[in-house]
Write a structure and sequence with these properties.
Blueprint: H1 2-13, H2 17-24, H3 34-46, H4 50-57, H5 64-73, H6 91-106, H7 113-128, H8 134-147, H9 150-163, H10 168-176, H11 183-190, H12 200-211, H13 215-228, H14 233-245, H15 249-262, H16 267-279, H17 283-296, H18 301-313, H19 317-330, H20 335-347, H21 351-364, H22 369-381, H23 385-398, H24 403-415, H25 421-434, H26 440-452, H27 456-467, H28 474-488
């Protein structure tokens, strides 16, 4: 019986329902066994024999697992079901419960955290099963990949490869999980697939090539896959994103527009289109697309944020601020909306409010050295020099190889009422060294630090060399010229 069930679940994972049903024919005496009945039901559904599938459940209709399968067959929204608190007692119950949780996200667009719930139940089904079940392992792989659970995915993949190494189901799993499988291994496995007979493999290969940085091959695979499946929304969006990465913005917009034609209510598609159009310098069309994305998915923060960028560039600062703050409300753990709200507030002449938003952005991501550096500059501008120096010091601790972090530390130290000359000089030298002497502003700061520590002659020579350069920004040239004038003035 175990051998027959193992064969049936393997056939299901390999999308070969006929072979699975033949395997189960040997178990007619076990018609009242719930796992046998559910396996037969699943195979009949895969074969398109829906009425027979319903009939196969009748002998076990009172079993909890069978009731869950009935919910799936009816494509019902299990809104009232508490997946986290369920207490299944058998492997088959865990399996069905995991698939039901997966379907709630996949088909009914519920919270993606249910992918993690599905993965946990399917992993439990694997652990409880008498023998390895290919379908249990297959769907554990898929849900773990969707949940971003690297350890669970690796465990499921290793088990499937060990128990069913030559299974077509393994190829199918690599297709569905191309964003998670090891790139080299995935290319090797999918290289054996007949893509003419199995066009979905094109799109999996496209993802793998993209992850490997082989963008031309990735694009060819996307195009081939979309020729076979022209209504694949995800593939059009992935292609659009890849084209954006290559700065081919007009082509990216065309791909995103194809996605909006497939699903005019997809907020993600409209958002991708808006982003591509912004970068293609088509602001009016971009604004319309982003506003449509917000209308279709009012809970998404990214379209609000991108609309804020567009409005800021158009000089509509109050509207941009409102968009950034709305994005911050929708994504309270994301630093970008707060950071850009701060920039707009400074442009509006509201530095205290800007400082508050910058600090909030820093709280969202305390590991971001750039934000520590930004806050340091703003604290110095408001006269909080001690706090500014502390924040700048934290930035260089987080990123000791970043020249701008050292330059910021030198700047806030030099701007303090009581200048710590030696420390400022050491910071400026480190920044200049890391920047290979190419940043004009850091050179100006180094000259200031030399002057403060008593080496005016070296400062004068450095500033003269800076001003002799051709590519010095006008603002830095003005500062350097003023500093040189002070150093040359009679004492």
């Amino acid at each position: 019986g175990e051998n027959a069930l193992t064969a049936a679940w393997l056939a299901l994972a390999e999308e070969d329902p006929g072979a699975g049903l033949v395997a189960l024919d040997a178990l007619t005496a076990l018609g009242g066994d719930v796992e046998v009945a559910i396996a037969r039901t699943a195979l009949l559904l895969r074969a398109g024999r829906r009425d027979e599938a319903r009939a196969a459940l009748v002998p076990v209709a009172a079993e909890p697992a069978a009731r869950l399968v009935q919910v799936q067959m009816d494509d019902r929204d299990a809104a009232d079901f508490d997946f986290a608190r369920a207490t299944p007692g058998t492997a088959i119950e865990c399996f069905v419960l995991g698939l039901l949780a997966y379907d709630q996200v996949h088909l009914h667009k519920k919270d993606r955290s249910l992918f993690g719930v599905a993965s946990r139940w399917l992993g439990t089904a694997v652990a409880m099963a008498q023998e390895p079940r290919a379908s249990f392992l297959f769907w554990w792989m898929v849900t773990a990949a969707r949940a971003g659970d690297v350890a669970a995915f690796a465990a499921a993949l290793a088990a499937y490869e060990r128990h069913f190494p030559h299974s077509r189901g393994l190829q199918l799993a690599y297709v569905l999980c191309a964003s998670s499988v090891p790139v080299d291994r995935g290319l090797a496995v999918l290289g054996t697939v007949d893509v003419a007979a199995f066009p979905r493999a094109h799109l999996a290969l496209a993802l793998l090539y993209n992850r490997a940085g082989r963008l031309q091959e990735s694009e060819r695979a996307y195009r081939a896959g979309l020729a076979a499946e022209p209504r694949n929304l995800s593939a059009w969006l992935q292609l659009a994103f890849m084209l954006e990465q290559q700065q081919r913005y007009a082509e990216a917009a065309d791909a995103a527009r194809a996605a909006t034609a497939i699903d005019p209510h997809s907020a993600e598609a409209w958002s991708r289109l808006g982003t591509s159009l912004v970068q293609a310098d088509r602001p009016a069309e971009a604004r319309a697309a982003l506003e449509r994305a917000i209308a279709e998915g009012p809970g998404g923060w990214r379209p609000q944020f991108n609309l804020g960028l567009l409005l800021r560039d158009a000089g509509e600062h109050e509207a941009a601020l409102a968009a950034f703050l709305r994005a911050a409300e929708l994504a309270p753990t994301q630093p970008e909306p707060r950071a850009f709200a701060a920039r707009v507030l400074r442009q509006l002449g509201r530095p205290q409010e800007a400082l508050v938003e910058d600090v909030r952005a820093l709280q969202c991501k305390p590991s971001d050295w750039r934000q520590w550096s930004v806050v340091a500059g703003n604290l110095a501008a408001t006269g909080l020099h001690g706090a500014a120096a502390a924040h700048a010091q934290r930035a260089v601790e987080l990123a000791p190889e970043q020249a701008p972090a050292w330059a910021r530390l030198a700047e806030v130290l030099l701007d303090a009422p009581a200048v710590d000359g030696p420390r400022a000089l050491a910071a400026a030298r480190r920044g200049d060294e890391l920047g290979k002497g190419r940043d004009a502003r850091t050179t100006w700061l180094l000259a200031r630090a030399e002057a403060v520590t008593g080496d005016a002659a070296s400062a004068v020579r450095r500033l003269e060399g800076l001003l002799a350069g051709q590519d010095v920004p006008a603002a830095v040239r003005k500062l350097a010229d003023e500093e040189l004038g002070r150093l040359r003035a009679p004492k």
